[in-house]
Amino acid sequence: MPRRVIKNDELHDRERSLGYLAVWFIETFVVHGRGDIAGQPIRYGDEYFGFIVDCYALDKRGRRLYDSAFFSRPKGTDKSGVAAAIALLEAFGPCRFDGWAEGGEQYTFLGQTYTYQKGEPMGRPVTQPIIRILATEEGQTGNVYDTIYYNLATETAPLNALVKAYGVDAGLTRVVLPKSSGGGSIEPMSSGAASKDGGLETFVVFDESHLYNVDRLKQMHGTVTRNLRKRKKIAEPWYIETTTMYQPGEDSVAEDTYRLADLIQEGRTRRKRLFFDHRWGELGDAAQGADESNDAYEARIKEAFADAYGDAAEWNDVEDMLDAFFDPRNNESEQRRYFLNAVVEANNSWLKITEWNDIGLGARIKAALKEGVTPSWRPPAAGEKITLGFDGSRSDDATALIACRVSDGYTWPVLIEEPPDSEKAKDWVVDQHKVDKHVRRTFAKFEVVGFFADPPYWQDYVDAWDKDFGDDMKVRGTRDKGLHFYTANHKTMAMAVERAHTAIVTGQITHSNDPQFTRHVMNARRWERNTGDVIGKEKRGSKNKMDAAIAMVLALEARARYLAKERPDKQAFEPFNPRGNARRRR
Question: Picking from 75-84, 238-247, 416-425, 447-456, which range would have the lowest pLDDT averaged per residue?
């Protein structure tokens, strides 16, 4: 089951969660608000039950572990319904810590009682809850608020008793809690309203955050998340994003959160306050191969559907999705994104995620074991022949040193340095002495037969490395310099990019599965130039770093030239002309 869950592994303990009480409240008092099952009680399977338990995980003091949650599922999986149920809990239910139970204590609401087990956290309502359901269009209430309104305004719904007996004012555009019980509200809000609101929110829903891809919506997201910090610590405000997989390159809120999840997983964030849950279906090489029957292709799609939908497969029809996949009017990439919730490539991505994953060390070992063959891979050993590639920046971009073992093409990051995910990023400058030490240690450990480095921003260091090591290189970047390789020389770079791409897609190399390295490679975009295709960022100023992909291309180019015993000559390598060749955007 392809599922990526990122949590605080040091503190996360499902036994220490208000989620069991939360699910009891939801299943006792909340009903479905839309579609054919409107009015029916909610009953969660293990997957959705577990997600809510995880959202309400506590530390040992009873404080919330997470100030945000990311719930990514395909279309038709009732993500909005889950968000609505949590919003109703946040408005009326026992959703904040109120001590540890001795055992036998009870919580009663609307005539129904929950009995606590020994050691279980007890809950209390939020004082004056302010809940916002963010809308992408002006005047829109959306699926989440529609479900909330249905639960409060429909006479047969259990929570309608709050309207009748306690004076809750449930309207089509907002819900107002009576002042006699402390007050509060639930309100859908558009970007215009959010920009004017002083905001003391305790809980917020960003539904379908992959649609938050324009300035006004991203500004709304920023305004509201800042508002959450205004409430006192006792309120423990938080928010949830529900979404289908984002379109790469749109720079949506969902893509930003996915990027944050990468950084958390790489250990590059100071705090782990995001609970991240993404489930998808893997179709492998999506297109139907010439030697693959329709039945085999359908079987692949059905398996991916089961993986992506999980509990929600019970109320979704796989035949409908098959019809969509086989309809020639539909874009297959979009079908994979919407209905398999899979990571898809941008139109100008340099590599497909499947192409990169297939040559990962993990995939190679798994394939060998499946065939009953003992994996032959070994870690790089001192004295082995390697090549190196280097691409550097000074501040806002990354600096990367990538190595490639000559004997088998195994590629790994020696060092990737990039700005931290914090306010300190604007003042961050790469530690050049640290990078220099890694270069020199690598030369001391291995037999480096080729090292190609892009000089801009690092000219002094590259000159020093060239002076110290250049004469020993078996291949050279230019006629005059052993290490200098100008990536802005589009003719030379295009040849190197094409050669690296061929080596990857034909399985001539493998890599270490390092997540930071993978992120850089998958961020690389193909850009057409007169002399061939080069790679670069998706757009100028993008936060998506890809410098390690450039460094890898240079390391692979050095290896390829060494294996071919190539030497640069005047015809193959043009001198770099700063005025005649546009510098690659950084």
Answer: 416-425
Residue 149's pLDDT band (boundaries 50, 70, 90)?
very high
Q: What is the mean pLDDT of residues 261-287?
A: 86
Q: Could you tell me what percentage of the chain is helix, strand and coil, using 3-state DSSP and rounding each to the nearest 5? A: 40, 20, 40
- The SS3 assignment for 239 reads strand
- Partnered with residue 484 across adjacent β-strands are 453
**Is residue 18 predicted with pLDDT exceeding 90?**
yes
Looking from the CA of 25 toward its CB, the CA atoms found within 13 Å total 27
**Domain residue ranges of the chain, discontinuous segments joined by +:** 3-279, 294-339, 353-564
Phi, psi of 551 (to 5 degrees): -60, -40
How far apart (Å, rounded) are the C-alpha atoms in residues 343 and 345?
Answer: 7
CA gap 18, 22 in Å, rounded: 6
Strand partners for 411 = 404, 511
Instruction: Report how far residue 204's alpha carbon sits from residue 188's, in angstroms, rounded to the nearest whole number.
Output: 10
Q: pLDDT tens digits, residue range 68-97? A: 999 999 999 999 999 999 999 999 999 999
Spatial contact of 1 and 280, defined as CB atoms under 8 Å apart: no
Considering the domain delimited by 3-279, tell me its CATH architecture.
3-Layer(aba) Sandwich (3.40)
How deeply is 570 buried, as exposed, middle or buried, from its count of CB atoms within 10 A (0-12, 13-18, 19+)?
exposed
Burial class of residue 17, CB neighbours in 10 A (0-12, 13-18, 19+): buried
Spatial distance between the Cα atoms of 119 and 3, rounded to a whole number of angstroms: 31
Mean residue pLDDT of the chain comes to 89
Q: Are 56 and 45 in contact (CB under 8 A)?
A: no
- Distance of alpha carbon 363 from alpha carbon 357, whole angstroms: 7
Are the beta carbons of 230 and 48 closer than 8 angstroms? no
Asked which of 100-104, 529-533, 547-551 is least confident by mean pLDDT, the reply is 529-533
- Segment 333-337 mean pLDDT: 86
Q: What band does 196 get if pLDDT is binned at 50, 70 and 90?
A: low
d(CA 145, CA 173): 9
The number of residues in the chain equals 586
DSSP-based three-state secondary structure for 118: coil
Q: How far, in Å, CA of 69 to CA of 399, rounded?
A: 31
Q: Which residues pair with 525 in a beta bridge?
A: 349, 536
Q: What are phi and psi of 250, to 5 degrees?
A: -80, -10
Residue 175: strand, helix, or coil: strand
What angle in degrees, to the nearest 10, is found between the helix axes of 142-153 and 79-92? 50
What is the edge-to-edge ordering of all strands in the sheet holding 399-405? 447-453, 385-391, 399-405, 410-417, 510-511
Architecture of domain 353-564: 2-Layer Sandwich (3.30)
CA distance 115 to 304: 40
Tell which residue, 203, 246, 217, has the closest CA to residue 66.
203
